[in-house]
Write a structure and sequence with these properties.
Blueprint (H helix, E strand, L loop, with lengths): L1 H7 L2 H8 L2 H12 L6 H20 L10 H33 L4 H26 L5 H7 L4 H28 L2 H23 L5 H38 L1
């Protein structure tokens, strides 16, 4: 859904819609996970959403020239649906951890990621062979500007890095909450331009700096709420121990 959305939409529009996933996650967390919204958490969600949206508006795009209205609407619907579905999956993972699995071990996190990745891999392979696109892989490899070895290495390390990131996402759901996991994921969007400047010598303009500062502000706001909650929980624990 994300791929077809990017195919049919300008980059700016696509980024703006993807930024809505944090808002979707906030709704699902409230309904499914009984997430309590304090002013600091609400502030964090708003800042990070607008930060990602601001970054999307600043991106260069080619507009909708050459695309029919039907494809544009389809791209919009698919991207919006993908954002909502991704947010729902995160909340459902938290439900599974809390009400179904009920185990506090790292192997639970790995099992969750391994099984979901396995299902996704099988589904992708079925689609690849059913569509006949596997026949074009060799030509795509030869056409890669950096060579065949670079093509294979790019695919390999992309897969490895995504698996590491996915374990991190699932781990944050397990340890904290699905909303905090999505907050960290959204935080990465405005931070990416820093690495683009360092490694690819991209330009850092004012809009990107503002988006980055908003993202950091939002993250600090959520982090402060976690600190306050942890401090309150420790005081309660100490009070209970003293009374007992």
């Amino acid at each position: 859904m994300y791929s077809y959305g990017l195919l049919y939409l300008p980059v700016s529009t696509y980024s703006l819609i993807c930024a809505s996933q944090l808002a979707f996650n906030a709704v699902f967390s409230y309904v499914l996970n009984a997430q309590k919204f304090t002013p600091f958490i609400f502030n964090s969600v708003i800042l990070l959403t607008f930060s990602a949206a601001l970054l999307g508006v600043d991106e260069d795009s080619q507009g909708t020239n050459g695309l029919s209205r039907g494809k544009y609407i389809l791209g919009f619907a698919l991207t919006l649906g993908a954002s909502a579905t991704y947010s729902l999956i995160l909340s459902l993972m938290q439900v599974a951890f809390e009400k179904v699995i009920k185990k506090e071990t790292f192997s639970v996190v790995l099992n969750m990621q391994i099984y979901t990745a396995l299902v996704a891999t099988v589904a992708s392979l079925i689609g690849l062979f059913a569509s006949g696109e596997w026949k074009t892989l060799e030509g795509e490899m030869h056409a890669f500007s950096s060579g065949r070895v670079s093509y294979v290495m790019t695919l390999l390390w992309t897969a490895v890095s995504w698996q590491i990131a996915s374990v991190g996402v699932v781990g944050l759901i397990f340890v904290v909450s699905s909303l905090f996991s999505n907050v960290i994921s959204t935080l990465a969007l405005p931070i990416i331009p820093i690495f683009a400047v360092i490694f690819f010598h991209d330009k850092m303009d004012g809009v990107k700096i503002i988006a980055m500062l908003m993202a950091i502000w939002g993250f600090v706001s959520y982090g402060y709420q976690l600190y306050v909650s942890d401090k309150k929980a420790r005081k309660t624990s100490v009070s209970v121990e003293e009374n007992s």
